[in-house]
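Hi R.,

Here's the chain you asked about this morning:
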Amino acid sequence: MNDNDQDAGRAAARPKRADARRNEKALLEAAAAVFVSSGVEAPIRDIAAKAGVGTATIYRHFPTRADLIVAVYRHQVEALAEAGPALLASGETPHAALGRWADLFVDFLVTKHGLAAVLQSDDSCFDPLHSYFLDRLLPVCTQLLDAAVAAGEIHPGQDAYELMRGVGSLCAGAGSNLRYDARHLVGLLIAGLGRAR
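And here is the predicted structure, written out as tokens:
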């Protein structure tokens, strides 16, 4: 290994500066917003304009569209994963925290319809995303359910995977039908977990 290889290895191992992390976060949030409004095939220049950067900046961070799609997906899964413990710590009741998290989960699922076709494509770079989704979100949903059970607010024996699948199924009908309100139906589902007072 020569000195250049060692320098490159050290640079790759260094954590990103705070401003670089903020810039990347802004890019991912801009890309997510553009994907929701225009689909994942939206021009990179639209994402750059929304983020207030040049297209070269996007390509520097994400050399391919697939890299950007994967990063957006992971960024949003991470935000949802971090929201669960934060909601529990915010002083709400655990059942209320579960309901608020379910709302955020609905937002995630409904806005992911644009990504759904891409994530089911033959491109192998998307294969690990479903496992990543489950690995990050199942423990969070389990934590919320367990806290609500421990507080005596919901019946014991609820399964996080089953609940998440149920919410996903309710969201599948959302589409553009104005008479179908997935959020309302998911709210009824979460309320139905509660113990009668």
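One quick note: The chain has ten helices and no strands.

Cheers,
M.
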